[in-house]
Specification:
single chain, about 400 residues, mainly alpha, Serine Threonine Protein Phosphatase 5, Tetratricopeptide repeat, 18 helices, globular, disordered N terminus
Length: about 400
Amino acid sequence: MSIEQACFSSGQTPMYRLFPEAGLVRRERLFPALCFMAAALLLIAGRAAAQSPASPAAARSEASNQGNTVSSPTALPKSPDLKLAQAESLIEKGQLNQAEVVVRQDLSTAPDSPAAHFLLGYILYREIQTQAKRIDPNPDAIYAAPTKSLLELSKKNAKASLAEFTAGARYRTPSAFDLKIVSLDYVLLDDYMDADKWLTRSLEWNPTDSDGWYQLGRTKYNENRFTEAIDAFKKCLAIDSTNVKAEENLGLSYEGLGDGPDAIKAYQTAIEWQASSTAKDAEAYFALASLLLEQHRSQDAIPVLIQATEIAPSALQGHELLGRAYLQTEDLPKAQAEFEQAVKLAPDTARVHYLLGQVYRKQGLTAKAKAEFDRCAALEAAHQSDPGTM
């Protein structure tokens, strides 16, 4: 069976013509999300966009998805080829550069090897994650927006990875696992439409992949297709019944539909499932607290955020949201302390300077307020002159 028959029995364009390397369109998210890109940058299973500085939801979503490993992804298929098996062993040891050398040597003698092209595509994707951890080894880095340099690197490698899958697809139909990596490459290129397409095909071939359903849910969410995202997260949970990330993202999807009660219930469930865990994920706490603040329930949000800042003490979101909560309750000394900590963590983030300036002004600290407002204005001006900066 040809690749056209295997992948497009309805007579559509063959797969190898559908892995473009450029011309992808950035789509704006209509609702704040835990940034899917940060997740794809950091972990194979994913960890799963900001609003204006005035909105309490802005602090929730600087990055995320991205958290922790969602569930065990489909295992990398084992190759009968001795050289590729050697490369796979190096991958398991985290020696990606050495694995890449082995695969490229294999391709120099067998350029028509689909298995080698697919494996190289996988390695190039994994190398993005390695670079992400090298650039920022902070365990709370998942809660921060990716740097400009990391975004540039991820796009470069994602394009190279797609090129390898394209080359391999000329000789053999990709597996469900291959298509999932293809879709994650598209996530890094901000092309959620193609990510959706290939994840859907991957799940048609492997419907028991809980991580695949999670990734599809995240993709649907970023397309603002919240009802479909809910369906995907529920399918993930039907396979992996206590998947914290899927439950948390189920809450985000309900929130996207404007269903606050179901969103709160999902966030609370995700938090409850972590009660006995020693390594908690703060994202459900951030999401719950953000929604509570939007509902002007600051007293309910404060204890949630105190827990979140204990879980992720160097994450900007927790301190910014907690500062907003204290500001709502007019507890200005505590708001000041949280915003000052936020400024220390993210000195080049304009809005936290603005928020700190507001608190200083309310306390009559005019000179300090002016300094923060001036810093905010300078950062905004710099961002407008170079919109690629983070």
